[in-house]
Design goal:
Layout (H helix, E strand, L loop, with lengths): L2 H5 L8 H10 L1 H23 L4 H29 L1 H19 L5 H29 L2 H29 L6 H7 L2 H11 L6 H6 L3 H12 L26 H24 L1 H7 L5 H28 L1 H21 L5 H14 L1 H13 L6 H29 L1 H23 L8 H5 L19
Length: about 450
C-alpha cells in the first residue's frame, strides 16, 4: 500500500460527514446520561408513592445498568454479525416504546422491567455507534471524536436534572412525565440517523468489497478504493477466542479500567440528591448541587478532550484516577465539612474524572480489530455494568450501614484501584492508525510496541 492510498482514509481531513456522524452517534450517550440521571430526581416522588424499601430503590436505580450489561454484549455481537448501520436506529426505537410505557407503570416490578429494557437498548448502542464512528474517523481526530461522545453523556445528565426539576412542579404524576420524556430526544436522534452508510471496514471484512468501495468513494472522494483498507491485518480471532488469544490481556485491562471508572460515577448519578442530602445539602440545594456537579463533569470531559492527544492516553488515565480518587477520599474523611468545601471536592472529582470517562470510548475501539470490535466493546461495557449495577444497588444500603463517610471512602478505593491497574497495564495508542492500534504485534516502533498489552501478558 502506498502512503498516498493510506492518507485517503487514515490521514483524511475532517469532513462534514465525520462531524455529522459524531453528532448522531452521540445520541446514545446523551440518552444514557438522561435515562440514568432522571431516575435520581424521579425517585423523590416514586419512593413514597410506590412505598419503596431501600432494596427496591436500589433495584430500580440499578435496573437500567443491568439492562446495559445485557444489551451491550448482545448489541456488540449483533453489530459484528449483521453490520453497524442496520442496528443504528433499531435500538433507539426500542427506547422510544419503553419510555412511553413507563408513564403507565403501576408498580415497582413493571417499572423495573421497563427500565431494564431501556437499559438493554442503550447498552446495545454503545458498540454499534462507537464502532461505526471509529471505523470512519481519521486517526488524528479519532480520540477527540470518540471521547467527545462522553461529553454528550453529561449533557444528557444535565438536561435530565433541569427537566426533572421543572416536572417536579407538575404535581403527583411528575415522575411519570420525567421517565416518559426520553421519548422526545430519542425520536429526534432516530430521524437524524436515518440514511447513515454502513462501515466500509465491516463490509470489506465480510467480503462485500463493491459495497465497501462505493461507501469509500461517497465519504472520501472518487479516488478512494478498497486498497485503502487493506492495511488492517486479520488476527483470526472470534468472540469465543477473545479471552484465550492475545486480546485477553487487553480485554482484562479494559474491563477493570472501565468498571473502576463508572462504579462511583453511576452511584452518584442514580442517587445524587440523596448523597448530597446526606452531606447536609438539603432540599432544593441538593438538586441544584447535582446539576452544578454535572456541569463540572461536562467541563472535565471537555478539558480531557483537549489534552488526550497532547498528553497521551496512558498519562491521562493514570492522573485522572489518582486525583479524582483523592477528592473522594477527602469527602469520606471529612463528610461534615462546610457546604462550600463539600461542593468544591465534588466539583474537583467531577472535573478530574473526565479523563477516564472519555477513554471509555477511545481505548476499546482502538485496541481490537474490525471483526470483533463491536463484540469487544460490548463485552467490556457489559462487565463494567455488572460492577456499576451492584454499586448502585448498594448505595442506599451503604448510606444506612456505613454512613456517607464510609460510602465515599469505598468509592475512593475503587478509583484508586483503577489508578493501580492503569499504572501496570495502560497502553499508549496516540498517533497510531486504527489497524496499528488493533494489531497484536504492531510493526511500528516506540509506544506502538506496547499498545494495548497489559504488562503481564
Amino acid at each position: 500500500m502506498t502512503a498516498n492510498a493510506q492518507n485517503r482514509v487514515d490521514d483524511a481531513p475532517l469532513s462534514g460527514f465525520h462531524k455529522k456522524l459524531a453528532l448522531y452517534s452521540s445520541g446514545g450517550p446523551f440518552l444514557d446520561g438522561y435515562v440514568l440521571s432522571i431516575i435520581g430526581v424521579a425517585m423523590v416522588q416514586i419512593t413514597p408513592q410506590l412505598d419503596l424499601s431501600d432494596s427496591a430503590q436500589g433495584l430500580i436505580g440499578a435496573s437500567a445498568l443491568i439492562g446495559i450489561f445485557l444489551g451491550a454484549f448482545v448489541g456488540g455481537w449483533l453489530t459484528d454479525k449483521f453490520g453497524r448501520q442496520l442496528l443504528y436506529t433499531i435500538d433507539l426505537i426500542a427506547i422510544i416504546v419503553c419510555s412511553v410505557a413507563q408513564f403507565w407503570a403501576a408498580d415497582p416490578v413493571w417499572l423495573f422491567i421497563l427500565r431494564l429494557l431501556i437499559g438493554m437498548a442503550v447498552g446495545a448502542d454503545y458498540p454499534i455507534a462507537t464502532s461505526l464512528l471509529a471505523e470512519f474517523t481519521p486517526r488524528r481526530y479519532r480520540g477527540p471524536l470518540l471521547g467527545g461522545l462522553v461529553v454528550m453523556w453529561f449533557v444528557g445528565a444535565a438536561t435530565a436534572y433541569v427537566v426533572g426539576e421543572i416536572l417536579l412542579s407538575v404535581g403527583h404524576d411528575g415522575w411519570r412525565w420525567m421517565l416518559a420524556s426520553a421519548t422526545l430526544p430519542a425520536t429526534i436522534i432516530v430521524l437524524l440517523r436515518h440514511g447513515t452508510p454502513e462501515s466500509p471496514r465491516w463490509l470489506a471484512n465480510k467480503g462485500r468489497t463493491d459495497e465497501a468501495e462505493a461507501v469509500l468513494k461517497q465519504v472520501y472522494g472518487p479516488d478512494a478504493t478498497i486498497v485503502d483498507l487493506t492495511a488492517e491485518e486479520h488476527e483470526n480471532v472470534d468472540v469465543k477466542a477473545i479471552m484465550r488469544s492475545g486480546y485477553g490481556g487487553r480485554m482484562l485491562y479494559i474491563s477493570v479500567f472501565w468498571t473502576c471508572s463508572v462504579v462511583p460515577l453511576f452511584a452518584i448519578y442514580a442517587f445524587g440528591p440523596k448523597i448530597l442530602d446526606a452531606l447536609q445539602l438539603e432540599g432544593g440545594l441538593a438538586n441544584i448541587g447535582e446539576a452544578l456537579i454535572t456541569v463540572m463533569f461536562l467541563l472535565g470531559c471537555v478539558i480531557a478532550l483537549l489534552g488526550v492527544n497532547r498528553m497521551g492516553r496512558r498519562t491521562l488515565v493514570i492522573h485522572s484516577f489518582v486525583w479524582s480518587g483523592l477528592a473522594l477520599l477527602l469527602l469520606g474523611i471529612f463528610p461534615h465539612a462546610p457546604s462550600g468545601v463539600i461542593m468544591t471536592l465534588f466539583a474537583l472529582y467531577a472535573i478530574i474524572i473526565g479523563g477516564t470517562q472519555i477513554l471509555q470510548w477511545i481505548y476499546p475501539n482502538e485496541l481490537f480489530p474490525t471483526e470483533v470490535r463491536g463484540s469487544a466493546v460490548g463485552l467490556a461495557s457489559s462487565v463494567s455494568r455488572i460492577g456499576a449495577a451492584v454499586g448502585t444497588y448498594l448505595v442506599p444500603l451503604a448510606l444506612t450501614s456505613w454512613g456517607i463517610g464510609g460510602t465515599m471512602i469505598a468509592a475512593a478505593a475503587i478509583s484508586l484501584v483503577g489508578a493501580l491497574v492503569s499504572v501496570l497495564w495502560a497502553p499508549e495508542t496516540r498517533d497510531l492508525a486504527l489497524h496499528e492500534a488493533a494489531a497484536l504485534h504492531p510493526r511500528t516502533g516506540g509506544t506502538a510496541e506496547t499498545a494495548g498489552r497489559p504488562a503481564s501478558v
